[in-house]
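[step 3/7] fold_predict: job queued, chain A
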Amino acid sequence: MFNKKIAKFVTNNKFLLEEYPIQKYSKNPPSWFKDVHVNLNKYMDEPQFKTTVKACSGIWDFLKNAYILRWNFDLEITINKDGTFNYGDINKDMLKRVTWFGPELFSMHTPIADDHLTKNTIKLEMNWDVVSSQNGKLLFKEPFFDYNRDYRIIPGVIEPKYVHAVNVIIEPLKDKIIIKRGEPALAVIPLDNQKIVSSLINRKDNDMIERANYKQNTLGSHWYEKYRKSDKKQK
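[step 4/7] structure written:
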């Protein structure tokens, strides 16, 4: 019998899991999209086309295949003229921590390096980890159809058998970033047909995460590739 691959988002906060479990985008799409009529006659007489974007299979397939992690807090981040930033108080129920990439690590090498908004690339370390006992990759990206954002998300691909941290890495677009509780924080797209679930962390999950942390701390640069290659050799 075929066993579908599973990637599991885990947390030790049962209240976070109860309130904002990871769900498919299609279960709670943006309000503007919900309000769109399929029939274009609702908006104009004798239209050239019959249907609106609501009938687009590409958009529906995106919503059906993407999973959404949501912010469980409100937070305001202010970007200063010198490129530094300030933010309000955070606690363990909101984020693990806030860190950043200095300009020498990322932004100074980009075509928009002169924009003070991008002097620091801000990393919000979520109260989630993702684990899997099977090979398979996930795409982390911006939830495109939720507009009115003060920032954009730098996309990335991870393999949760080896890399477990869930981070939202943002580039500011405005001097003030407003994060609102309940809004989508991150879109997760399975690249290998995995089923995505969320649960409280258990001992096996924790051992997997601790093992990866140990490898990261001891293998040095390119630790992920070294870890993955050594794991494959043992099989």
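[step 5/7] annotate
The chain has a mean pLDDT of 90.
The chain has one domain: 6-25+67-222.
exit 0
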